[in-house]
Amino acid sequence: MKKLRFAIIGCGSITKHRHAPEAKQNPNVELVAVCSRNLEHAKAIAEKFEVENVYDDYEKMLKEIKPDAVIVATPNYLHADATIKALKEGAHVLCEKPMATTEDECRMMVETAKEMGKFLMIAHNQRFNSAHKKAKEIIQSGELGKVLSFKTTFGHGGPESWSSDKPDTWFFHKEAASFGAMGDLGVHKIDLMRFLLGEEFVEAAAFITTLSKKYPNGKPIDVDDNAVCILKTQSGAIGTLTASWTYPGSEDNSTVIYCEKGSITLYADPKFSMIIRYANGQKAYFELDTMQTNERQTKSGVVDEFVDCILTNTPPKISGEEGLKTMKVVFACFESAKTGRIVRIDY
């Protein structure tokens, strides 16, 4: 079988530690080009992963290479532009989260994919964790009854220890990132909860602020480093979502879902990725997998899923439309934080 010719736009840490190695490991992929506006970063990725073609202009790369598929892993403000141009050049696109910086950009990405007859997938990797998939099965089975509430958290010490341009990373600059911890981490948990619960959020209330992070010159960063949100689902379940860049020395990537007949705890225990606590006092422990961290990367499954979708001509489950629904919740949380009001989410 002819291999799919892949190109990657953006050569930071997520490409180095996840996208490039996963592309190289897939037997159906040939990684033919990498591109970054920082040419040194692109050259370093090309050398490490034995990629022949290196560019600092993705429009030129797309026209000359004509890849079958493109991974967009740029700073957030370029997601929409790079994705739309890749789609228009006839490539399927896997775009990093957050999908884009405005709802209009998200819609244009979705519409362009439809217009060009190409797949657009958003790289929400937490859907692929074994314990998350198992928890979804249990919730859908009705074994624990109706979901009543939840709490989900994603917090670590911040991107400055992880980003390829540390310490004054693009993640801290509003013109490049648009969002801070909420767009970097909170978006993961919004998508995850939509996946686990199988329904949409209809109302949001949030505090989103900057509590601690500073630029190297001592000035506070101009994006958020903490967000705490209250979300309500279509069925009336309510829960909290926390995203933080100020959990020094540790990472919390856990979720607890409270149902009528018990609760499910995910990735809160170092050994058991899922623990069910039944209302009658019984407990069930599942040692399924471990959560990926910036320091400990394992195969996320995102690139493999994207490749399978292309080869089987099957629309991705984490489509552009799905990405837009997740981003609607993100935008609602920011509106709530700005106005001090509960925001209704319109689909």
TrEMBL record:
InterPro entries: Gfo/Idh/MocA-like_OxRdtase_N, Gfo/Idh/MocA_Oxidoreductases, GFO_IDH_MocA-like_dom, Glc-Fru_OxRdtase_bac, NAD(P)-bd_dom_sf. This is Oxidoreductase domain protein. GO terms for molecular function: nucleotide binding. Pfam families: GFO_IDH_MocA, GFO_IDH_MocA_C3. Residues 4-124 form the Gfo/Idh/MocA-like oxidoreductase N-terminal domain. It comes from the Bacteria. Transmembrane segments: none annotated. Residues 133-264 form the GFO/IDH/MocA-like oxidoreductase domain. It comes from Caldicellulosiruptor acetigenus (strain ATCC 700853 / DSM 12137 / I77R1B) (Caldicellulosiruptor kristjanssonii).
